[in-house]
Amino acid sequence: MHASTEDSARPIALVTGASSGLGEAFVRALAQRGYDLILVARRAERLAALATQVGAAGVAAEVLPADLTNDADLARVADRIRTCPRLALLVNNAGFGVDALYYQSEFAGQSAMARLHVLAPMHLTHAALPGMVARGHGAVINVSSVAAYLCGAASVMYCSTKAFLNSFTISLAAELAGTGVRVQALCPGFTHTEFHDAAGMDRKLIPKILWLRADYVIDQSLRDLERGRVISIPSMRYKLIVRVLRMTPQWLISRVSRKKFAAR
Ligand SMILES: NC(=O)c1ccc[n+]([C@@H]2O[C@H](COP(=O)([O-])OP(=O)(O)OC[C@H]3O[C@@H](n4cnc5c(N)ncnc54)[C@H](OP(=O)(O)O)[C@@H]3O)[C@@H](O)[C@H]2O)c1
């Protein structure tokens, strides 16, 4: 049994996609940093197990199972945010990948990605910001990706939705200047989570040097948030990769991505 967030006075963080990977790592890191938590994802039993684990260390953790591609579930999570006066941090982290050409894949999956990566962060951020601005503090982390800097074959919606998250976050940062509320787009590279299994990707195709640990990514994100960095790219490797990508002509990135997909 885990303690209710109603019985505590600590700041609250709501994390979407808390049932595995980066979301779970956020939950563990934020619990250690003195936050109570609201855990959102579809797999309720995983959320309950995590809530019990962090609850053993005195953290109040509330489980809020929801499919964020579903309008009614999304509205329910947004309502919970609006009625949470101690909400200090919203982490829009839930996401997934599809390893297929856009025009050959099921539209339902591509549309679910737009709902999860675009509509859900838009809706939850819109629910969170008025309260945070009124209180003069708070933060929103949108989990994007280095894919925001790529445009290529077989990840059309993934790259597009992550580019949206970067643009959305940078624009919000301009609106929120001077309010005490911070926003961040977290852009990790390849990180050990369940992401690649869920997308049916072969991890062996990715060089070992490119892999990051989830706890390292979260540590870098939270440090960058303290420093007020709007874009967080964990590790020097990926900072360099992004710098090179930004200088590379788009036609070259597109051609390489198409060839890589065709060679598999
Ligand atoms: N791993 C990487 O290499 C990498 C790199 C860059 C960016 N990212 C981003 O990091 C974020 C987290 O991914 P991850 O790597 O931690 O992968 P993961 O281990 O597969 O976790 C994805 C999380 O999203 C949740 N989720 C998926 N669909 C959902 C839905 N319809 N409603 C609610 N929750 C949903 C999953 O929970 P349920 O299945 O229980 O709903 C799970 O908790 C994603 O936005 C991803 O794009 C990952």
Secondary structure layout:
Elements: E1 12-16, H1 21-32, E2 36-41, H2 44-55, E3 61-65, H3 71-82, E4 87-92, H4 107-135, E5 138-143, H5 156-176, E6 181-186, H6 195-198, H7 214-226, E7 231-232, H8 236-247, H9 250-262
Parallel strand pairs: 1-2, 1-4, 2-3, 4-5, 5-6, 6-7
Bound molecules: NADP nicotinamide-adenine-dinucleotide phosphate.
Description:
Strands 3-2-1-4-5-6-7 form a 7-stranded parallel sheet, with helices on both faces. Helix 1 (21-32) packs across helix 7 (214-226). It is built from 9 helices and 7 strands; from the N terminus they run E-H-E-H-E-H-E-H-E-H-E-H-H-E-H-H. It has 264 residues and is of the alpha/beta class. It has one domain (5-262): NAD(P)-binding Rossmann-like Domain (Rossmann fold, 3-Layer(aba) Sandwich), CATH 3.40.50.720. It has helices at 21-32, 44-55, 71-82, 107-135, 156-176, 195-198, 214-226, 236-247, 250-262; strands at residues 12-16, 36-41, 61-65, 87-92, 138-143, 181-186, 231-232. Strand 2 (36-41), helix 2 and strand 3 form a beta-alpha-beta unit. The longest helix has 29 residues, at 107-135. Bound molecules: NADP nicotinamide-adenine-dinucleotide phosphate. NADP nicotinamide-adenine-dinucleotide phosphate (NAP) binds next to helix 1 and helix 6.
Distance separating the two termini? 48 Å
CATH class: Alpha Beta
Low-confidence segments, given as residue ranges, are none
What is the CATH H-level superfamily?
NAD(P)-binding Rossmann-like Domain
Number of strands: 7
Could you name the CATH topology? Rossmann fold
How many domains would you count in the coordinates? 1
Structural class: alpha/beta
Helix-strand sequence: EHEHEHEHEHEHHEHH
The CATH level-2 architecture is identified as: 3-Layer(aba) Sandwich
Percent helix range = 40-55%
What's the shape? globular
Strand content: 5-15%
Largest sheet composition: 7 strands, parallel
- Summed over residues and divided by their number, the pLDDT gives a mean of 95
How are the strands ordered across the major sheet? 3-2-1-4-5-6-7
Question: Number of helical segments?
Answer: 9
Based on CA atoms alone, the radius of gyration comes out at 18 Å
Distinct small molecules bound, one entry per kind: NADP nicotinamide-adenine-dinucleotide phosphate
